[in-house]
Amino acid sequence: MCYPRIVSWLLLLASGWNTISPATAVDRPAFEPGDAAPISSKVSLVHLGSVDSFTITEQGTLAGRLLLNALENKDMTEAAAAKVVYHAIVPKEHYGGEYTALEWFCDYLIGTEDDQRAQLADRFHRSFFDFFAQNDYANLKEYLGRKYKLKEFADSGTNDGRDRLSFLEDFILFNNPRREEWERTSKIIECLKIQPGTTIADVGSGPGYYSFKFAELTGASGKVYAIDTVQNHLDYVQNVCREFGISNVETMKDRADGISLNPDTADLVFMCSLYHIIYTTSTEEVKDRFVASVKDALKPDGRLVIVDNAVVQDGQLPYHGPHIAKELVIGQLYYYGFDLTEQHQFIPQRYVLIFKKRT
């Protein structure tokens, strides 16, 4: 049995690329993607896990319990103890997860008034804080109780309970005030070279982390469509827009098989930590319709930007949740009619792929 040949065929199939015989391989155009993604780790080339959640660890649970105790008992020594745990586990567990956001709350609770003012100086950080801190930190207490199973809830184990936890978890992950520190968000945005007047579709916008940044760059002459399947996220985006007088952001409810934009609308379609879900969970028919809707929504010279989670080298801390080798994305989108024009990787755990429609 020829194991190298078997491995080669499995990689082709896993990549979602057309299966061809060795006899016809020489007929390929030179610009087609290669036959296989490089393997530099024992982990799978694509991993879905539980989408945006991550493994609950003993130390993570301990820190969550200490923070919950601090909130419920107004005991800041517990918040200080939680910070010690988070400081220890952030470099070792769940890169890009919730820990830095929860540590941010610890810093606020034990900080001086000047420290607290500095933490809330950014208006979007203040909105994030207000959401979790309103009604004596009700949403933050609920999240910690649900996530680490520290409290019982009437809807625990139901779809409603799971949806509520998913919403709170997405919110704390996506709008984390310390996201820049681990993601290098500003570098991602810089490489997009967004100009005033640009129309951007932020697909899978969540509670608007990138939407709000795009809105500042596109200006009054531009437009940002915040598109998501979760109405609670869109409601939050709308509330923030009203609060701060942001007039160039419009929210849209997404469909599983399309982004609901009119043809030739967007200069840029942006998807962060989303394409791995489309790749792994959609049927081919749904995937075809979704990508077709993206292609239709783009202007003839528009760009599709995919930011997603990379396979890391053995010994490196992976992103907290799913990942997909960039070669799989490049290969699949090639056959959907998109050519890669740029790629960037500012941290090992995350890459940026920029495509244009093939004409």
Task: Explain how this protein is built.
This protein starts with a helix and ends with a strand. Helix 10 links the parallel strand 2 and strand 3. The protein has 3 domains: 3-36, no CATH class; 58-93 and 98-175, no CATH class; 180-357, Rossmann fold (3-Layer(aba) Sandwich), CATH 3.40.50.150. The model is unreliable at 1-30 (pLDDT under 50). The strands form 2 sheets. The protein has a 7-stranded mixed sheet with strand order 4-3-2-5-6-9-8, sandwiched between helices. A two-stranded antiparallel ribbon has the order 1-7. It has 359 residues and is of the alpha/beta class. The chain is globular and about 65 Å long. It has helices at 3-14, 58-73, 76-89, 99-110, 113-119, 123-147, 159-174, 179-183, 185-192, 209-218, 231-244, 275-281, 284-297, 326-335; strands at 46-47, 199-203, 223-228, 249-253, 266-272, 298-309, 323-324, 338-347, 350-357. The chain contains 14 helices and 9 strands. Helix 3 packs antiparallel against helix 4 (99-110) and helix 6 runs antiparallel to helix 7.
